[in-house]
Protein 1
Amino acid sequence: MAPAPSSPHSRRMIHVSAASSSAVHSSTRLFLDSACRDAIRAYLPAGTFYGVTTNPLILERDQGKCTLEYVSNLRDELAMMPCEELQVQAWGETAKDMHECGLRLADLATDGIRIVVKVPATRQGFEACRLLIHDGVPVTVTAVYNPQQVLAALAVGAEYAAPYLGRMNDAGRDGFGNIVDMQSIVESSDGDTRILVASLRSARELASLAAEGCDTFTFSPAVAEELFTDPLTMTASADFEAAAKRIGG
């Protein structure tokens, strides 16, 4: 015998926080590559984004600042959204400078928002990466342009390695092929490093790389918009609403 349907009063009420309601149950992680408050408020409530990524160029473009105060305010903004993680690039010319900056950034983490520190895939960056990981700080090795840099990220224990698809293509390299190779390297290793594909120019690039096994991406608000505004979907949605109005009580 089928169980009797439960009444509204007998159902267990589950309260879900904004952060825990983000897309954390999927192996796929999507990040919004932006520090623009309007873009964050527009796209993160959809629940499809695991977090937000920034770097000094993005902060400059979005009228931000490379200061702890600015990052702290951005973190507070994200705490009101479905968001698990904020990735911020350490600034400084030496490994020591990046390490010290990274520690200060990591101290901004809260129970709701995890901070991941980004460092470039240079010798100084890898040295800072090693020091930060030793201190328990999660790190993304960024500005990755070739598969051998992924090997170095795996060896040092970075949580993410971020290749730049569009910039590789702009430089005449096979960005797609290189990233597929990078993904194969991490899948064949026993490490936990994720390939965080950046510098995407279209949602179609994202889908094509996902078909090759990539599952972690960061992209601009312009690309994010492509996820939600297919013309056929928009037409269907309008048709649904029109029908609802025609037959509504």
Note: The radius of gyration is 20 Å.
Protein 2
Amino acid sequence: MKRELTASRQSLFSRIMNPKFIMVYATIGLFLLIYLFGAVMYGKVGFTTLRTFTTLFVDNAYYGISAVGMTMVLITGGIDLSVGAVASLTGMIIAYGTTVMGIHPLICIAFALFIGVGLGVLMGWVIHYLNVPPFITTLTGMFLARGVCSLISRESIEISHPMFDSLASWKINIMHLKDGEWVKVKPISYINFNVLLFFVILLIGIYLLQRTRFGRNIYAIGGNEQSAKLMGLPVGRTKVLVYGFNGLCSVLAGITYALYVKSGWNLSLQGAELDVITCAVIGGTLLTGGVGYMIGTLFGVMLKSLIPALITFNGNLLSWWGKIATGLLLLLFICIQKIVVRTTDRRNVKTKAAAKE
């Protein structure tokens, strides 16, 4: 009995200390470290309030939604550079259709979903069946979406519709119990529709990756695509579905961004694809594929959102310092990835050699 208990403890410890989780641990640890720094430096001026914490999600929900889809794409060993352009196109479709053409926003959203998911499926099909590199395929998709945005309008279009306005202003105030009554937390903190949608998509992503055959196929393809084919896994169908799901996330990100700014503009979210990739990579997703977790991506989004918050509370630094800090973080995590991969490879070689002996 004791041996079985000891063996189970060792098995649990070995799973927890799996090298694949090291990147996630590093992201969580760095987030806590930077947050602690902010608490010490700016705690007296409101950095540690619940409002500041919820604002991290309210202001960056569209990045988080897109990062969920990007995480799946990166795990397969691919990449998608069209996410920012598709999100921008979504906002333009909603803005032009609602304000200029007088179409109900739900119909515009449905059309945007059809376009975004369709483009994602098409790119996935081209990548697998025509063997075109993901970088080139999605770069083409990016130019196509940006071009259509400019064809629709080169001016910013305000979105004005009662349903859209109510959805944009909808929020849940966070309450606490005081003297037997529920009152609003001070300063007032809330979560809105965008934050709820982000967490719904995040939970769907966790479920798909960790609890379904589809998720296991994604990891298998990213680990070794040739081996996945030899095992008879549906590589082509999985890739097409992954890029289709990423297209869905891009459209949802565009909807949340349109709700955030209540307008559409052909040049909005330029470079957002790099921010989304950064969130996934900082969250522990390997650029080479095969490794990645949605929890890591969540903390990657939070970590990337925390840096601008620190700069805002400082008040003396330009916003560009946020880009510099994010770039340094990305470089740091890529280096850590390389170290982890090499260490894992060496362990595997030693294990195989010991097994042969």
Note: The mean pLDDT is 89.
